């Protein structure tokens, strides 16, 4: 069959199935065969199946275009009506010629660009056919992109965040409850909360339902006249968010000071044999090329060759192995880019810079009490937690961090902490103009130094 013959065949099938096939679009192959007497019905059926597999999108579009022009032409009397009692007597040949002249043969060709295809078309029907082979299904899957172009949010700004009175009242109610008893002034606190007396009850109930507050009972109320106290689960939840401990960061800072003293004394290397959190100090500087590690007394053997000092039973059961036999020493060497702590101005800046406060609108971050005084213990817990998660999940935004810390921290105070940390060298944006954060090079040293300097 020639190219023109194929186009005429497709047009004939489209017309007959559209006008005689009903809702199911069935094809009357006997009627079609009368127009292609040189070919057997079985051949025509196989030819149609092959066209559907190769040109389905074009055929569907051609069919829709035909239906549009035929309805208009029929309403205007440009085409003769069909006698469904005598389909063989209808002049199908003239209708096919008229359609091809109106739409053009090239309409049946495959689309030359992906944009011209029907975006709603899916291959599910073909994929789940009983006779579809595994190879055909794999080809279908591989023909579709499995990825999406990344989208980046614009950088957030704490000053531009939209606040309502309820958000401010919520921060005040929370601050009133978390204020230490030794610093709580009942008259001053009540005078401040009076500004939002219509909202305080509602936000307090919400904080109580979120398990940030619990109700004071009995004689405890008489101590500072407060109905609520911090919920015990609040501190446990904050500790769960914080995988590390304050003491571990302080250990890393102390070990950095130890390395400074050893290298300044003229030592070429320092032997490291401990198993503590001092690894944070060593590995953080090694990864940026400020330290070089050399392993000593490491037993290197070809894979599969047993060690003579390990018994047969120990080889079969790892729990029976003596861990001391697998230890080795590490020598730490400074590189030309090594920096001593006292040469890092950002450490002094971070330690002396006041923790972030709220804006002029009056909101109070979690680490400030109702009298706008710092709560050192809460400040260190929040700083440790946010810094660790931002380090472990590079690219986090204030919104994603809020999803991790909710309902403990609000999005606006996380944003303020991130912007404050950017100013002291604790955090940095992963890319200019993109709302994504990670920790900077000396984050562990800054966090440890702040924790060591803040007095509880």
Automatic annotation (TrEMBL):
Domain of life: Eukaryota
One Pfam family per UniProt: DUF6581
Domain Transcription factor tau subunit sfc3/Tfc3 C-terminal: 1-402
InterPro entries the UniProt entry points to: Sfc3/Tfc3_C
Protein name: Transcription factor tau subunit sfc3/Tfc3 C-terminal domain-containing protein
Species this protein is from: Calycina marina
């Amino acid at each position: 069959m020639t190219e023109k013959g194929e186009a005429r065949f497709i047009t004939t099938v489209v017309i007959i199935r559209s006008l005689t096939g009903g809702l199911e679009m069935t094809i009357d192959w006997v009627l079609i065969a009368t127009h292609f007497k040189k070919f057997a019905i079985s051949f025509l059926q196989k030819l149609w199946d092959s066209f559907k597999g190769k040109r389905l999108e074009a055929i569907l579009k051609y069919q829709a275009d035909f239906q549009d022009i035929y309805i208009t032409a029929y309403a205007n009397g440009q085409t003769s009506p069909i006698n469904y009692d005598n389909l063989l007597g209808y002049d199908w040949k003239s209708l096919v010629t008229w359609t091809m002249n109106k739409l053009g043969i090239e309409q049946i060709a495959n689309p030359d660009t992906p944009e011209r295809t029907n975006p709603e078309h899916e291959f599910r029907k073909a994929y789940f056919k009983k006779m579809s082979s595994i190879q055909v299904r794999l080809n279908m899957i591989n023909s579709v992109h499995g990825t999406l172009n990344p989208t980046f949010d614009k950088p957030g700004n704490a000053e531009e965040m939209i606040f309502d009175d309820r958000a401010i009242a919520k921060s005040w109610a929370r601050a009133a409850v978390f204020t230490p008893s030794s610093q709580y002034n009942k008259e001053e606190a009540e005078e401040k909360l009076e500004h939002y007396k219509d909202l305080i009850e509602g936000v307090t109930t919400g904080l109580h339902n979120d398990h940030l507050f619990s109700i004071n009972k009995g004689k405890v109320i008489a101590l500072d006249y407060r109905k609520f106290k911090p919920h015990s689960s609040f501190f446990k939840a904050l500790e769960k968010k914080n995988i590390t401990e304050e003491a571990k960061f302080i250990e890393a800072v102390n070990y950095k000071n130890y390395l400074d003293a050893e290298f300044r004394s003229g030592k070429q290397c320092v032997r490291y044999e401990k198993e503590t959190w001092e690894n944070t100090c060593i590995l953080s500087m090694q990864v940026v090329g400020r330290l070089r590690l050399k392993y000593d007394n490491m037993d290197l053997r070809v894979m599969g060759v047993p060690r003579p000092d390990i018994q047969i039973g120990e080889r079969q059961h790892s729990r029976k192995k003596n861990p001391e036999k697998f230890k080795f020493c590490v020598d730490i060497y400074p590189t030309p880019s090594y920096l001593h702590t006292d040469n890092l101005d950002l450490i002094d800046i971070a330690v002396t810079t006041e923790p972030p406060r709220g804006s002029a609108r009056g909101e109070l971050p979690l680490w400030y009490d109702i009298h706008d005084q710092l709560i050192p213990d809460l400040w260190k817990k929040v700083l440790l937690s946010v810094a660790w998660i931002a380090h472990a999940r590079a690219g986090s935004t204030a919104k994603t961090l809020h999803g991790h810390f909710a309902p403990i921290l609000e999005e606006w105070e996380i944003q303020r902490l991130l912007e404050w940390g950017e100013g002291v060298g604790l955090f940095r944006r992963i890319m200019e103009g993109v709302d994504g954060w990670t920790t900077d090079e000396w984050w562990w040293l800054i966090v440890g130094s702040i924790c060591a300097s803040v007095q509880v």
